[in-house]
Amino acid sequence: MISALHKTVQRKLPLTLVAAGLPQIPRLAGEARSYSERLFRFPEVGRLDADAARLALTAPAQAVGVGFA
Predict the structure, then answer these.
(1) What is the pLDDT of residues 7-65, one digit of tens each?
(2) What is the Cα Rg of the chain in Å?
(3) What's the structural domain count of the chain?
(4) Domain limits at 21?
């Protein structure tokens, strides 16, 4: 996958990949291909607090008329 995305970038094709993984993924990707650190960004996303987590689940559900019991 890293090689395919690298070729896509080299050809300047419009492709975006969003993925989530474990904290060791940046290290493992770097070990797999030396250029992966330059190819990808690895922003760290922290935990939501309880209110934000509840809203993240309930707001989209309410928008389509679904509720939680």
Answers:
(1) 888 899 998 877 777 777 777 777 777 766 667 777 777 889 999 999 999 999 999 99
(2) 18
(3) 1
(4) 2-63
